[in-house]
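Example record

The entry below shows one chain as it appears in the dataset: sequence first, then structure tokens.
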Amino acid sequence: QVQLVESGGGLVQTGGSLRLSCAATGRTFSRYAMGWFRQAPGKERAFVATINWTGSRTYYADSVKGRFTISRDNAKNTVYLQMNSLKPEDTALYSCAGTYSAYASTNIQDYPYWGQGTQVTVSS
């Protein structure tokens, strides 16, 4: 049974930073790509960032490029999302997700494993 547990969300002012973590259990974490997605109230879940199995390849949504950084520590079975220069429009429920593949993907359909999410709220 694959489990993904996010942490690190919270309330932050515009321009602030947060670091999200996603701890994985139940399978060989290091073999698979991981991703972060977010869902704002009244909107569909959207891609944020993805990282391949080694951490050598990363891709970002245009809206977060240059502000967010995805990384992973395979020894700790954990993937991170460092979020800087936060804006009110970044407010959402952030979820990490796992793929069946070693290759990073921006396609939500490639992610069968999901965490419960952690709320990020950015005040103006």
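Notes for this example: The CA atoms of residues 38 and 46 lie 5 Å apart. The longest strand covers residues 18-25.
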